[in-house]
């Protein structure tokens, strides 16, 4: 059965993001390099997302909740979230239980004054880098 995808608000994400079982997946393309990002988020650009989907599943091993976002979370974020849900069904992955999309995306996150990381580390060292 395909997993359903639900939305999460920025304040909900802020409360959840320090949990070890959650991963944030940024699917913006080039914007990530000049607009900053949510600390600790992974980067899987939407244009190559399908090719790297098994790398992503490998990288988030042990996590059960994935939160997707793009700039606005209107097109790329939900599209990649649905692709992942389909992929997980195909490979019968049961580890990832929750697939969420961040409402209003990175732009909404930043506009609400939430913390933005501007490190250039790949992967982002997140909150530990500060
Ligand atoms: Zn960073």
Automatic annotation (TrEMBL):
Gene3D superfamilies: Rhodanese-like domain
Record-annotated Rhodanese domain positions: 18-118
GO-annotated cellular components: cytoplasm; nucleus
InterPro entries: Rhodanese-like_dom, Rhodanese-like_dom_sf
Keyword Oxidoreductase: yes
The entry's keywords: Oxidoreductase
GO terms for MF: arsenate reductase (glutaredoxin) activity; protein tyrosine phosphatase activity
TM spans (from-to): none
Pfam families in the cross-refs: Rhodanese
EC number(s) stated in the UniProt entry for this protein: 1.20.4.1
Keyword Oxidoreductase: yes
Catalysed reactions, semicolon-separated: [glutaredoxin]-dithiol + arsenate + glutathione + H(+) = glutathionyl-S-S-[glutaredoxin] + arsenite + H2O
Alphabetized SUPFAM superfamilies for the sequence: Rhodanese/Cell cycle control phosphatase
PANTHER family in the record: ARSENICAL-RESISTANCE PROTEIN 2-RELATED, M-PHASE INDUCER PHOSPHATASE DUAL SPECIFICITY PHOSPHATASE CDC25
Record's protein name: arsenate reductase (glutathione/glutaredoxin)
Organism: Vitis rotundifolia (Muscadine grape)
């Amino acid at each position: 059965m395909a997993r359903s995808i639900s939305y999460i608000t920025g304040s909900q994400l802020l409360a959840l993001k320090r949990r070890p079982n959650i991963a944030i997946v940024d699917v913006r393309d080039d914007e990530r390099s000049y607009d900053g990002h949510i600390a600790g988020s992974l980067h899987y650009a939407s244009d190559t997302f399908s090719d790297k989907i098994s790398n992503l599943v490998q990288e988030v091993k042990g996590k059960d909740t994935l939160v997707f976002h793009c700039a606005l979370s209107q097109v790329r974020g939900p599209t990649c979230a649905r692709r992942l849900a389909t992929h997980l069904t195909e490979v019968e992955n049961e580890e990832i239980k929750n697939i969420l999309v961040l409402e209003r995306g990175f732009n909404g996150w930043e506009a609400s004054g939430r913390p933005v990381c501007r490190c250039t580390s790949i992967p982002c060292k997140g909150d530990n880098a500060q």
